[in-house]
Amino acid sequence: MNLTGLHLLLTYRCNYQCDHCFVWSGPRAVAKHLTVDEIEEILHQAVRLGTVNTIYFEGGEPFLHPAILTQGIELASLFGFRTGIVSNCFWAVDATKARERLIPLVEAGLDMADLSVDSMHGGDEGVRRAQNAVTAARALGLAPGTISTERPENGRDYPSGQGGAVMFRGRAAVRLADRVPHQPWQGFTTCPHEKLADPARVHVDPFGNVHLCQGLLLGNLFEQPLRQMVADYQPKDHPIVGPLLDRGPVGLVERYGLPHAGGYADACHLCYTARQHLRGRFPKTLGPGHIYGEKSI
Ligand code: SF4
After folding, report:
1. Would you say the CB of residue 244 lies under 6 angstroms from ligand 1?
2. CA 79, CA 85: separation in Å to the nearest integer?
3. For FRET with 159, which of 38, 200, 274, 295 sits at 20 to 30 Å CA-CA?
């Protein structure tokens, strides 16, 4: 596995509670956040792995912990990593505030900012704040990327940047999947989004869980060194990744004889639903529970 990026979920908490969120973030999500000491431990593990060059800070909403975010970026820069953030920009209430919140991060060494600009995050006011953040980031020399998620019924409301359709997993599977036409379940024979055979990046949550896809775990780096996990990874033999590589989400249904509906909104909808059925059987591989709506918010 040639892992070049670690994306740290500083917190599962978020000021918004978006319907399309993969990880059930919201104001009442689990309170645990990464500490500066834990970030430093993760950075040491990234150095020992030897292939990582980029550390992203995201969530939930990372700006809910501005001091930890700033120190994390500073540390990661000192360790020699390129650094990035992903944010919904709730903090950019006007041009002055946007600049004030970004300056400490730029001074700490921030290289990249991916900013959500769409009405799925906070409606029209959310878009206005995000545009303040984009303007401030450009003025500070950050060349921000924008992420714009399409509304299920009527597409994108911000035309530039990355983005695309909702992926129907997490809260999106529960809240949004019925708003789009469903396709026959037998058609979802590949994973369209993740390079599960050879992932280039993984997400690390506040508990140390290392996610190949949200809720699909490689292991826990507070319990086992990341370098060991990567060395031991045999995707074809993994109980969830193996079937996904063979036949996509359909492979999970077939391998484990799972119940299923006639149709699903997309591949992630079938995958997430199949994984919910399997969580009791593979609790260390499929978790934490709230990503499957178990302590939901
Ligand atoms: S198909 Fe499954 S593994 Fe692939 S991106 Fe969707 S939820 Fe993740």
Report:
1. yes
2. 17
3. 200
Number of separate domains in the chain: 1
Looking at the domain assignment, is residue 228 inside a domain?
yes
Q: Is the CB of 272 inside a 6 Å radius of any atom of ligand 1? A: yes
Q: Which of 213, 240, 253 to mutate to test the pocket of ligand 1 (most atoms within 8 A of CB)?
A: 213
* pLDDT, position 297: 43
Amino acid letter, residue 234: Q
**Full residue range of the structural domain in which residue 21 is found:** 5-87+167-183+191-233+286-292
Alpha helical stretches, state H, 50-187: 66-78, 95-108, 123-139, 171-175
- Whether 266 lines ligand 1, by a CB cut-off of 6 Å, is no
In a domain, 114, yes or no: no
Using the 8-state DSSP alphabet, how is residue 28 labeled?
T
* Predicted pLDDT at 145: 84
Contact by Cβ (8 Å): 149, 117? no
Q: Are 11 and 34 in contact (CB under 8 A)?
A: yes
Is the Cβ atom of 271 under 6 angstroms away from ligand 1? yes
| CA gap 199, 189 in Å, rounded | 19
